[in-house]
Predict the 3D structure of the following.
Amino acid sequence: MVIDEEGNRVGEMDIDAALQLAYSKNLDLVEVAPNANPPVCKITDYNKYHYQLLKKLKDQKKNQKIIELKEIKLAPAIETNDLNIKMNAARKFFDGGDKVKFTLEFRERKYRRLLNVDQFGVPHPDMSLLHQVVEKLSDVAVVEKEVGLDGFKVTVVLSPKKKK
């Protein structure tokens, strides 16, 4: 299927005939829809077509919102005020539409204690720090990845709630 430079259908023709028609007008034959049946070719200036294609892709990229994953690191012995400051930073990230990963990192000795559950089945008290964070941020965020061990780290990933 061949389309001329004004956008009118010329009709189905052989590739050699289409090339001959394009060269007679000092233009190029550009395949615009190779998967169509029959393939669609347009008689146009290739440089102009390529420029318009790049411009369209650039406009599509401009309208996209890229969601980043921000990381906030916590220590097992964090003070209340420091925790509040980090949670306020997380709220700002959520307002910007970003996801936040809270990481609680342990040293070797503390990590071994973390894995040991006491006789009543209660995990290490430091583990509850991330549960507190999730609870306090529940008004602006939802849990995307539950609290879990990742090497010597305990992590949780939160994403912003959808705005109505």
About this structure: The chain has five helices and eight strands. The longest strand covers residues 141-150. The longest helix spans residues 46-62.
